[in-house]
Write a structure and sequence with these properties.
Layout (H helix, E strand, L loop, with lengths): L10 H5 L8 E5 L4 H11 L4 E6 L2 H7 L1 H10 L2 E6 L5 H14 L3 E6 L17 H17 L3 E9 L12
Parallel strand pairs: 1-2, 1-4, 2-3, 4-5
Helix pairs in contact: 2-4, 5-6
Length: 167
């Protein structure tokens, strides 16, 4: 790699000259922020991206530019519903992906929530823990057979633990 990347580097900088045609990615949390930008960057290089979101209506509006970029670059983008706070939803989505059978070159676990009011999921877990950790754990564990040999698993997180109390 001849170019160094830094805090000002964009996804387009990193992907400059990279051809992702024929590659398939799963990205959670493609209804806002980093998830939308990740999907846009990947499809703009010809990749096929499956975006999984909790709110399909919100995601449809937020990803118009992703669909436009896919059309221009020969990539593709599809949305699917996934509520990471619900193990029923996670298992159902995993089962649909497995039934489809198409492999992924990378899985990017991006979705997450922060500073939610305290509450429990229907499964009895704290909402933020269930969404940010357990949901992704179950999803990835179940669909791992769809990850190609030498495929990549990317887990996003934050540094919020540095400012939180143990209790």
């Amino acid at each position: 790699m001849s170019k160094k990347f830094d805090a000002k580097s964009t996804a387009q900088d990193v992907l400059a000259g990279v051809d992702l045609k024929g590659k398939r990615f799963l990205v959670t949390g493609t209804s806002a922020g980093i998830g939308v930008e990740t999907a846009r960057a990947l499809v703009s290089r010809g990749a096929s991206v499956v975006g999984l979101v909790r709110d399909l209506a919100k995601a449809q509006a937020a990803t118009a530019s992703v669909r436009d970029a896919a059309a221009q670059a020969g990539g593709s983008f599809e949305l699917g519903e996934l509520d990471l706070a619900s193990l029923r939803s996670v298992r159902a989505r995993a089962d649909r992906l497995l039934a489809d059978g198409r492999p992924f070159d990378a899985i990017i676990a991006n979705a997450g929530v922060m500073a939610t009011p305290f509450g429990l999921t229907d499964d009895g877990f704290e909402i933020q823990f269930a969404t940010n950790y357990l949901g992704h754990f179950v999803l990835i564990h179940r669909i791992e057979p769809l990850l190609v040999d030498n495929g990549r698993l990317v887990m996003l997180s934050s540094q919020a633990h540095r400012v939180a109390d143990v209790d």
